[in-house]
Specification:
two-stranded antiparallel sheet, 20 helices, mainly alpha, globular
Length: 487
């Protein structure tokens, strides 16, 4: 019975693995000509997984009843919240990827398979309640991501992005694994519940070093400063659909994993990691804002924006309470919508020959030549800056409110002041599009799928997005409550 229950709880991972193997056979049989059909099938698989995940979130699943494989895996509401964002982000990537790669004559049947395998690894990450399951899920995701970053083999930037990501990612994985070994050595357990109980007593110096190393390894995965150095280069060099994927799904998985490790495994010793998170949050906000000011490539600007937004989300984690976790999850969901809108808009920036346009200067006067696209990008920029009434404002407001309620007034004040710096480079892009002389470079046509996705995501971050504010808050609250339910 225990085996059957565990199999039922890990149903989405089984669907992804079995479907991945079947589609791998289809790819081997049909070759690259079957890549679009395989992509459609992969989107259908992700949709099925999302449907299977919804009940756990709606019913606020938590506790021993949703624990599987002897406590190594949890199918609770927190995991369900993260998986829904991951599956949605992966599906968006598969929808926009075929047209992009076909223009480059580089569409291969392996790409949707890599996305499915990465999604399975990320699902394990958000559900992991044991350091062994954590590491297996993280490496499964990372191995697929390294290949995806260098998918355009004829493009030197893509090859460089894949190599940098691989080298730095391997270093971060080593740091994380060393931290896990220290935690195991000083607590005698690999399970999060066991670590939580062991750390409730006196904190040994070796365990403190283990916590630091684990947080450092995970900080790389979320591209938080000072472990952010790979982000601008990888986002710029990777194919734009892959950059879209990196900015959304892996970010959700890594942040969710960081939350579960910090608030559950290390939750009995918040003083050991809270100051580290505060430092990383502030450094990410400042470096993300200052680093973006001098950028002339829109993808690099969005990379620094990602670092900046991670800093704001970590303010919620620094609160070390349920309100902060719920605020962080709300911000994360809004951030995914903003990132999808931003990178889909970048995909639509093409010249007359269909070549991608990434220079901000080439976007000059876009409001005169492509007004709908310019207004959409403007909405994304203002939302990322947290300017009301766009929905991005609510994410920042939630984490600042949680920080104030937790007594972190200085952190909230510094975060609010630093957000003004970030507004500068977002408004600069709007100024170029609406007030500079038209460069008349972006004249290429966009695909229907891109236009639909851009419309949906911009509506989600527009003032209309406030209509889902209450249900989103309720779902985030259920997910955060499951995270604090110690089995």
């Amino acid at each position: 019975m225990e085996l059957l229950r565990s199999l039922a709880i890990t149903g989405t991972e089984e669907v992804l693995s079995i479907s991945g193997l079947i589609l791998l056979l289809a790819a081997g049989w049909g070759g690259d000509k079957a890549s679009r059909a395989i992509s459609i099938a992969a989107v259908a698989v992700l949709t099925v997984c999302a449907v299977l995940t919804v009940p756990a979130l709606c019913h606020a699943a938590m506790g021993p009843g949703v624990s599987a494989w002897n406590g190594q895996f949890s199918g609770d509401a927190f995991a369900a919240f993260g998986k829904l964002l991951i599956y949605a982000s992966a599906a968006v990537t598969l929808i926009i990827a075929p047209a992009f790669f076909e223009r480059e004559n580089a569409m291969r049947a392996e790409f949707p398979l890599l996305v499915l395998l990465a999604a399975m690894g990320m699902g394990m990450m958000v559900s992991a309640t044991d350091t062994l399951a954590l590491y297996i899920g993280l490496e499964l995701n990372s191995l697929a991501a390294y290949v995806m970053a260098s998918f355009l083999r004829s493009d030197e930037r893509s090859a460089e992005a894949g190599l940098k990501y691989f080298v730095l990612g391997s270093l971060a994985s080593g740091i994380l694994l060393y931290g896990i070994s220290l935690i195991y050595g000083f607590t005698g357990s690999t399970s999060f519940a066991g670590i939580h109980g062991a750390l409730a007593g006196p904190l040994f110096m070796g365990a403190t070093f283990g916590i630091v190393f684990v947080l450092a390894g995970l900080a790389f995965k979320v591209s938080a400063a000072p472990f952010h150095m790979w982000t601008p280069d990888v986002y710029e060099g990777a194919p734009t659909p892959v950059s879209t994927f990196f900015a959304t799904a892996p970010k959700v998985a890594a942040l969710a994993l960081l939350m579960r490790v910090s608030l559950f495994a290390f939750g009995s010793q918040p003083g050991a990691w809270q100051q580290i998170v505060i430092f990383v949050a502030l450094l990410s906000i400042v470096i993300g804002a200052l680093g973006a000011i001098g950028q002339d490539n829109i993808k690099r600007l969005l990379a620094y924006s990602s670092i900046n937004n991670v800093g704001f989300m970590l303010i919620g984690l620094a609160c070390a309470n349920q309100a902060g976790a719920a605020a962080m999850l709300v911000y994360l969901a809004i951030y995914v919508a903003m990132s999808v809108a931003g990178f889909v808009a970048v995909l639509m920036l093409r010249d007359a020959d269909g070549a991608p346009v990434e220079s901000i200067a080439a976007m000059a006067g876009l409001s005169k030549t492509r007004p709908a696209l310019a207004w959409a990008i403007g909405a994304v920029m203002f939302s990322l800056a947290g300017i009301p009434p766009l929905f991005g404002f609510w994410g920042k407001f939630m984490v600042f409110q949680a920080a104030v309620q937790a007594g972190l007034l200085t952190l909230a004040a510094i975060g609010i002041a630093a957000s003004v710096i970030g507004a500068f480079y977002y408004i600069k892009v709007v100024k170029v599009m609406f007030f500079d002389e038209a460069a008349d470079v972006v004249t290429g046509q966009s695909d229907l799928a891109q236009r639909v996705l851009l419309f949906v995501s911009v509506v989600a971050i527009s003032p209309l997005g406030w209509l889902i504010n209450k249900p989103l808050g309720e779902l985030a609250g259920r997910a955060a409550a499951a995270l604090f339910h110690i089995a």
